[in-house]
Amino acid sequence: VFIMKLLVILLFSGLMTGCRGNSSYSLPPKLLLVSFDGFRADYLQNYEFPHLQNFIKEGVLVEHVKNVFITKTFPNHYSIVTGLYEESHGIVANSMYDAVTKKHFSDSNDKDPFWWNEAVPIWVTNQLQENRSSAAAMWPGTDVLIHNTTPSYFMNYSMSVSFEERVNNITTWLSNSNPPVTFATLYWEEPDASGHKYGPEDKENMRRVLKEIDDLIGYLVQKLKMLGLWENLNVIITSDHGMTQCSENRWINLDLCIDRSNYSLIDLSPVAAVLPKINITEVYEKLKNCSPHMNVYLKKDIPNRYYYQHNDRIQPIILIADEGWTIVLNKSSSKLGDHGYDNSLPSMHPFLAARGPAFHKGYKYSTINIVDIYPMMCHILGLKPHPNNGTFSHTKCLLVDQWCINLPEAIGIVIGALLALTTLTCLIIIMQNRLSVPHPFSRLQLQEDDDDPLIDL
């Protein structure tokens, strides 16, 4: 029994030592977070990405990132950097309305801190701890004074600024700033813009666009190597959402169901936010049977799995189109691709790739949640995270300084250990039995209680 216990202790202490990894990477750690908007997860399987695949070979790949509902740009980018669901961080759509202040939010009117102050993004936290700086190139919200703070270095948003110019600014700030930039973000509008225009099933156009994306990744890597940043910088490449194919044969025309004078449409397809101008129940009744390809919810009835209910910016009625269907007014939509749909759909999921001293090499992982990225980034940077909806343990297997074992490996190790212990126990029993078997000519032994002589004299 003692030997068995000793073997178990030695086995598991060896495993823990082997899995714990090396946490001695350079301090202070630096992290660059990169987003290619609308990069659907399965693009990686369906197209060639030589530069990105080389990046992945030196690091880790998460094949699917389950994003938050609604699967749109502003909400998911803010979830990445706060670790919060949309109902918690307050950026609940690309277009919003606040009934108390009568304020409107859109992608062209997004600079009011009022909309962003319900959460604390990681670039703010990074600057408030020790003597650190953050930098940003176009990431949503980084040009806004959130909690009276912007990144030390940032660019006002403009689609006309090239990717190369954004990279040049970010790499300069990472190289030559004082205090040092330890956290930086970089954003690019593609392949989202082309996904909307052509649809993800347009292989010819998407192949061309995605090759351009891969070349941009190659440019970024080359720039980091030239400036001596490559070896000590942790880089995460990810996205906010995927994309699905749409068609003019899959339109849901609200004008056939309800008069426009009865409501205001705050956010359009594929998740439409409806603000009734008349009785809420009356508007709901007119809409609920409008199309078999659209679910209609009163705010209180929105499914719990969406985590999309407990915020005043979520309107009284929400319409959710089925995948590939488009909600329109009087049949008007030119999009062949769209996103925003149910976040359980694989077509809505992005991916995550990462490499650097904090990450394993050549490691693949199936799925994490988009809110899990935030606590992982805080760990890498040594920051104390704000309360969030992410789970750090979901990303431990990606990091070299964390002990990680998944369920199949755990089962294999336990079965292997039991087999080894069973074999060893059997060997010990066999050896003991061999030693205790009497030899044919062994000397007879008198028992202590045997008083009778063996031979009568």
Automatic annotation (TrEMBL):
Chain's role: Hydrolyzes extracellular Ap3A into AMP and ADP, and Ap4A into AMP and ATP. Ap3A and Ap4A are diadenosine polyphosphates thought to induce proliferation of vascular smooth muscle cells. Acts as a procoagulant, mediating platelet aggregation at the site of nascent thrombus via release of ADP from Ap3A and activation of ADP receptors.
Keywords tagged on the record: Blood coagulation, Cell membrane, Disulfide bond, Glycoprotein, Hemostasis, Hydrolase, Membrane, Metal-binding, Signal, Transmembrane, Transmembrane helix, Zinc
Organism from which the protein derives: Marmota marmota marmota (Alpine marmot)
Pfam families assigned to the protein according to its UniProt record, in alphabetical order: Phosphodiest (PF01663)
Localisation per UniProt entry: Cell membrane
GO cellular component: plasma membrane
Main location: membrane
GO biological process: blood coagulation; positive regulation of blood coagulation; purine ribonucleoside catabolic process
Superkingdom of the source species: Eukaryota
Residues in the signal sequence: 1-21
Protein name, entry field: Bis(5'-adenosyl)-triphosphatase ENPP4
Lineage, uppermost ranks: Eukaryota, Metazoa, Chordata, Craniata, Vertebrata
Membrane topology annotation: Single-pass type I membrane protein
